[in-house]
Hints:
Blueprint: E1 2-8, E2 11-18, E3 21-25, H1 29-32, E4 36-42, E5 47-49, E6 58-62, H2 66-71, E7 81-85, E8 90-91, E9 97-98, E10 106-108, E11 110-116, E12 132-139, E13 142-143, H3 144-150, H4 154-158, E14 163-170, E15 179-184, E16 187-193, H5 201-211, E17 219-221, E18 229-230, E19 236-241, E20 245-252
Parallel strand pairs: 6-17, 8-14, 9-20
Antiparallel strand pairs: 1-2, 1-5, 1-14, 2-3, 3-4, 6-7, 10-13, 10-18, 11-12, 11-17, 12-14, 15-16, 15-19, 19-20
Amino acid sequence: xxxxxxxxxxxxxxxxxxxxxxxxxxxxxxxxxxxxxxxxxxxxxxxxxxxxxxxxxxxxxxxxxxxxxxxxxxxxxxxxxxxxxxxxxxxxxxxxxxxxxxxxxxxxxxxxxxxxxxxxxxxxxxxxxxxxxxxxxxxxxxxxxxxxxxxxxxxxxxxxxxxxxxxxxxxxxxxxxxxxxxxxxxxxxxxxxxxxxxxxxxxxxxxxxxxxxxxxxxxxxxxxxxxxxxxxxxxxxxxxxxxxxxxxxxxxxx
Length: 254
């Protein structure tokens, strides 16, 4: 199933995406299950917004692709490298992203995002699928200059708009072996595969839940393949993941 958050006539709602239509759902599927109301709309008539605003946090994993670590001159860490983004960093598909005034080096990072479906702690890797609601596309935008100088990554990774998510959540997907492409103004700049992750999705869920209680709607970003680069005002970045779809955002000046 593909579950989206939509807006029509200023009213937000969850919906199933079925071809070129959406079927409205009753309430929040994270708490009420997937219950169609019977009302349907053309997909072109609704505006897609971020498929989830995390209840508490976005847990991110850095340097989880060896070639990406190498291109930035970093060693691969012995354990997954974790950092957090606040939920205020999240924006949706098609939403313009305003570049922050404090940075001159904003970089795109296309990533597979994991959406948690229920409260959990200390989840064994072999049970990770029991707590996963689904998957979506993400762009882990990074202020590279502040990442180098701040020490802590809170500002470099967590500024408003630094976590585009979308276009929807795919609930029936094997996360292993998915192609992941990022384009900048139509040119392919990242061309990777989730099979190249150092730590797979199940191991990352186990690692994150060992550190934090995960809540329904929390999001895990799983790292980015090689090919990251800078984005400028007026440019458009699209992240396409096999089996999910395409997340696209235009960039505005500070």
